[in-house]
Amino acid sequence: MSTSSTRLPEGRYGRSSDQRADRTLKVVGAVLSVLLLGLVGWFGYHYVAENEISGEVISFDTSQNAVKVHLEVHKDAGVAGYCTVRSQAEDGAEVGRADFRFDADATRIDEVVTLRTTSPGTTAQLVGCHTD
Questions:
Q1: Strand, coil or helix: what is 116?
Q2: How far is it, in rounded angstroms, from Cα 100 to Cα 55?
Q3: Domain positions in the chain
Q4: Does domain 52-131 have CATH number 2.60.40?
């Protein structure tokens, strides 16, 4: 007794539809990957190149009704902008938020600002910096 094979003879009937579908999926996947990579690169470039003002919290000191925040701001010369700082209580509730303006021509500003709070704050967070 012999067993019959269910496979078609090689090269006799052309490519199967599964092979064509696999090739189509590979091409579509490659095109979508290139588009996604281009989109990520575009957003990355605009985030780095277009951001004319940035800041960093160096340290902070809390008291009963205020938080003193040591900010270091980097910006292009002649650019005016502001940085938003917030403070939260121990339970996570926001107890203070304020915008601090930076209009000087210097490219690096190192300043201590005072954020008034409604109750004792335990943190000082830089929400973001924006140009006018």
A1: strand
A2: 11
A3: 1-50, 52-131
A4: yes
- The residue type found at 107 is T
Which residue type is seen at 47? Y
d(CA 112, CA 72): 9
Half-sphere exposure of 47 (CA within 13 A, CB side): 7
CA distance 33 to 52: 30
Local confidence pLDDT in tens for the 132 residues of the chain:
566 667 766 666 666 667 778 888 999 999 999 999 999 998 888 766 665 788 999 999 998 899 999 999 988 888 888 999 999 999 999 999 999 998 888 889 999 999 999 999 899 999 988 887
Opening angle at CA 66, ends 93 and 108, nearest 5: 100
- Rounded CA separation 54/102 (Å): 11
